[in-house]
């Protein structure tokens, strides 16, 4: 089998009414106008001479046409290659920019989407779901948490928590990072509202300095929080270490990291308890396997991150969650950036390979590849050329 065509699609859905930043970011009043002005992603489509087509996603948080153009630029390296040779192709693409310092950023995100599309082809060619290629179904039913309860005022936050409970979730994540008093008040209110039997985790999106994170963390211990996610900046390994050694709550991070090298620093220097790479940012499935082995060697749990990516990323992440024994819970994204405008890249692009969702647990389908059935009308409607 040979690759006959590679195409990248930059998809952008403008958010019609301006929104306040739904997560913690610096200079929010200014940056929200750029960061949260649209839903965006880049999809990769790879075709073969045997009529098998694979789909992948590149995580995009800025300038989606830049990622698209990188994929198109490396297309000649892929033409005529055997798509089953995922390890070789990964190293080939990585070698293109390795000695230029590109261990993270737009190039690695582009590589990620290509790699994922190749794994989709591999599964389809062998008539197996990708999770079976990764070692089988370690988790036949995947515990899922609703993500996320965003900054939208206390009444709306509690209404969101109630909706998640009614949908059958037994776990959910709260976005914090608005300030010490506001954050503690929000967590306390949600805990009181949902009761002690619901698992809660909190996500700061790197919004604290180390001392603030320590103060908040000590208060959070009262509310039985499952983990404290991205409390400080991604490269603040000393801060992560201090938090890990000072708090009883497990510390999580890794969505802002890329390859195994940065994740290694987070584990070894930061001493985190949980890593959360996103397959569409961190080099695709091929690199996720290496990161998972690294985490296992240090007895650190590997959880997938889906964030506000498209449904393609969520499908890929489900396969990783099914295959990895230590992936004890899945981030099941339920909340769009705008509460008034749904994200069609999340809800309409493809159905997820989910057979059932009952009592907070997902049962995965067994369709070949990632089980994607892409609605190309959504691509054509939202494509930026």
TrEMBL record:
Domain spans labelled Mandelate racemase/muconate lactonizing enzyme C-terminal: 154-250
GO biological process: one example: carbohydrate catabolic process
Pfam families, per database record: MR_MLE_C, MR_MLE_N
Cofactor(s) needed for function: Mg(2+)
One Gene Ontology term of the molecular function aspect: hydro-lyase activity
Domain of life: Bacteria
CDD domains listed in its UniProt record: MR_like
Keywords recorded for this protein, A-Z: Magnesium, Metal-binding
Protein's name according to its UniProt entry: Mandelate racemase/muconate lactonizing enzyme C-terminal domain-containing protein
Organism whose genome encodes this protein: Formimonas warabiya
């Amino acid at each position: 089998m040979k690759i006959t065509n590679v195409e990248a699609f930059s998809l952008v859905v403008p958010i019609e009414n301006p929104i306040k930043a739904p997560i913690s970011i610096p200079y929010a009043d200014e940056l929200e106008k750029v960061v949260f002005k649209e839903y965006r992603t880049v999809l990769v489509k790879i075709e073969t001479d045997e009529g098998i087509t694979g789909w992948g996603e590149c995580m995009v948080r800025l300038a989606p046409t830049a990622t698209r153009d990188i994929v198109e630029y490396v297309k000649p390296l892929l033409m005529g290659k055997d798509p089953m040779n995922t390890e070789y192709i990964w190293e080939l693409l990585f070698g293109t920019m390795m000695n230029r310092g590109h261990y993270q950023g737009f190039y690695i995100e582009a590589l990620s989407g290509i790699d994922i599309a190749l794994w989709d082809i591999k599964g389809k060619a062998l008539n197996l779901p990708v999770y079976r290629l990764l070692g089988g179904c370690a988790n036949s039913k995947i515990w899922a948490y609703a993500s996320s309860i965003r900054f939208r005022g206390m009444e709306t936050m509690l209404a969101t928590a109630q909706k998640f409970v009614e949908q059958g979730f037994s776990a959910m994540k709260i976005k914090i990072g608005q300030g010490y008093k506001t954050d503690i008040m929000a967590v306390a209110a949600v805990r009181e509202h949902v009761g002690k039997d619901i698992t809660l985790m909190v996500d700061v999106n790197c919004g604290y300095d180390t001392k603030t994170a320590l103060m908040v963390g000590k208060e959070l211990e009262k509310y039985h929080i499952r983990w404290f996610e991205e409390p400080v900046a991604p490269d603040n390994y000393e801060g992560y270490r201090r938090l890990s050694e000072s708090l009883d709550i497990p510390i999580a991070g890794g969505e802002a990291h890329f390859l195994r090298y940065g994740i290694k620093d987070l584990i070894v220097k930061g001493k985190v308890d949980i890593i959360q790479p996103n397959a569409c940012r961190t080099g695709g499935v091929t690199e996720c396997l290496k990161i998972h082995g690294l985490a296992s060697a240090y007895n650190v749990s590997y959880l997938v991150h889906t964030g506000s990516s498209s449904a393609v990323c969520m499908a890929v992440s489900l396969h990783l969650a099914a295959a990895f024994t230590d992936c004890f819970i899945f981030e099941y994204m339920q909340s769009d950036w705008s509460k008034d405008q749904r994200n069609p890249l999340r809800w309409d692009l493809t159905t997820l390979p989910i057979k059932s969702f009952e009592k907070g647990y997902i049962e995965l389908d067994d369709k070949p590849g990632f089980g994607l059935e892409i609605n190309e009308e959504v691509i054509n409607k939202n494509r930026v050329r």
